[in-house]
Amino acid sequence: MRKSVLVCVLLLAVSSVLQAWNVTALLDRDDCLYKCGEQAVFTVNVKREEGDTAPLKMTMTLTHDGGNHFQEQDCEVTDNQEFVLRDTLYQPGFLRLIVVFRYNDAEGKEVKKDVQAGAGFDVEKIVPGAPEPEDFLAFWQEELRKADETCPLEVTMTEEPYSSDKVKCYKVIINAPGGRVFCYLSIPQKTKEPQPAWVMVPGAGPGHFCGSTNETCVRLIINVHDYDPGSTQEEMNERYKELNANGGYMYIGGPDREKHYYHRSIIGAVRAVRWLAQLPEVDPKHIGYKGISQGGGFGLILGGLLDGTFQGIYCHIPALCDHLGYKLGRSSGWPLFVSNSKFKRHPDCQTFLPYYDAVNFARHIHCPVRFSVGFIDGTCCPSSVYAAFNAIPSTDKQIINQPYVKHSISHEIDVDSLKWIEELVTGKPWK
Which of 27, 151, 295, 315 is least enclosed by beta carbons within 10 angstroms? Predict the structure, then answer.
């Protein structure tokens, strides 16, 4: 039976103090949710603290979740003032107010900051910007088959120095067509019986260079990059800098389906999870997944390609969703492929992107799923997150709304997600 789709979290309004000015942007409903055609009322309050006489320049823009612009207003504020903007959407989506403030600092240099508010309209009806290709799943199944045929699995395990008598930690290198993926595995030593496990792919960035010493269950961290993360943060950052020397790694190899950067990452991650499930220390019926941003997107990718493997998946503010959302007038999810000049100009862009869209993988997930979403997230816009969430056929799914949150999650939500995934795979109360 389907559980409640919406679990609202009310957070404090975003505010910004610019010199002696205080600015807030709020909606007229605590949950910031509306039906299509209903008016959302945005109230922007500007307050000048005593003693400040410098004017504040301000631009207020209403957009379709970072896409089409509906209203824009420039003004100069010299005293306390309140601005009210009203608008609606007639199709499911998000109406986002972006208020940009410009002021001069003590050295006379112009500084820009912003506050935002987002209103969701019939969010449970948001659909992707493009349909799933008819051969989507067949394409990836064939790529995995070819990988097994032409690039037989090879695994290298090296015990890490932070192992202890309680938890054994390993660096694991798994081959894939075009390269490798580097993983970190931790195995609690509390029992010789098979144990529950959960998997994580890091968010966008240089990756992780060490595993977990948690004693609750087996954990596997899968990096998307084809380099050894090294033993220090400095080493890893240097390798990441080299990787991005000619542009962001997420654009490398596109728009060729077989050469894109994530092609190796996806196949390598699938291999890593399958390998994990075969370890004698792991109970293959009790494996979960938890990830944030890029890691959230990979949770959908792995969940779709390995349907039936995970007992549950938790995706915080997932990236890699709804790459063609711009067709409906809104922004797309990270990494905003169509905003990158290389992809925007390429004639194969629209036919390539659906094969790397986490929305299409999400359509094949049937296990319990949990999401979180920020209503003013400009990196993984809420429309893209809801497009993926709504596409999941699982009857056990929930999403936590964060109305005044950008691309982040609160510590409380992060802890709750860890509690959920560990209780799910262990079958025991979380400690």
Answer: 151
pLDDT in tens, 241-299: 999 998 899 999 988 999 999 999 999 999 999 999 999 999 999 999 999 999 999 99
307 in the same domain as 187: yes
Helix, coil or strand: residue 301: helix
pLDDT digits (tens, 9 = 90+) for 331-378: 999 999 887 767 766 778 889 999 999 999 999 999 999 999 999 999
Number of structural domains (the chain) is 2
Overall pTM surpassing 0.85 (yes/no): yes
Q: What's the Cα-to-Cα distance from 268 to each of 53, 91, 181, rounded to whole Å?
A: 59, 39, 6
Q: Is residue 141 domain-shared with residue 69, that is, in the same domain?
A: no
Residues across the chain: 431
Rounded-to-integer distance, Cα 175 and Cα 155, Å: 7
The answer for residues whose C-beta is within 8 angstroms of residue 61's C-beta and 6 or more apart is 69, 71, 72, 73, 97, 98, 99, 100
Q: Are 65 and 94 in contact (CB under 8 A)?
A: yes
Residue 76: exposure state from Cβ atoms within 10 A (0-12, 13-18, ≥19)? exposed
Residue finishing a domain among 125, 158, 187: 125
Backbone angles phi, psi at 118, to 5 degrees: -130, 135
Q: Which residue has the tokens 């299409």?
A: 360
- Report the distance separating Cα 178 and Cα 268, nearest Å: 10
Residue that is written with structure tokens 């990718």 in the block: 301
If we measure between CA atoms, which residue out of 199, 193, 203 comes closest to residue 212? 199
The H-or-E segment that residue 263 falls in is: helix 261-278
What is the spatial order of strands in the sheet that 15-18 belongs to? 15-18, 21-27, 40-48, 81-87
The answer to whether 191 and 197 are in contact (CB under 8 A) is no
